[in-house]
Design goal:
By secondary structure, the chain is mostly helical. The chain has a single domain, classed as Helix-hairpin-Helix base-excision DNA repair enzymes (C-terminal) (Endonuclease Iii, domain 2). The chain contains 3 helices and 2 strands. The radius of gyration is 13 Å and the shape is elongated. The two termini are 22 Å apart. The N terminus and C terminus are likely disordered. Its cofactor is [4Fe-4S] cluster. This is HhH-GPD domain-containing protein.
Length: 78
Amino acid sequence: MVFFEYENYLIEPKVSAGQAHIVFARIAPPDWVYGLHVGMIRHGRQICHAQKPKCGECPLYARCAYVGSVNPQKTEIS
């Protein structure tokens, strides 16, 4: 999944669910944590695939460290 930076907190590829929840708890109100969790899972399943990410559809494209790192010709936006 995307290497996403929000303020000074990082969510890296293959982070555990427990670690992600700690990060979410620091950056969001408690009632948002579950929604963030579900949203990140959905983002990974629908857009940010390891082998062939849909970078052209990604709202995080401009801040993503993953873009072009696996297969640049497939991740460029036309």
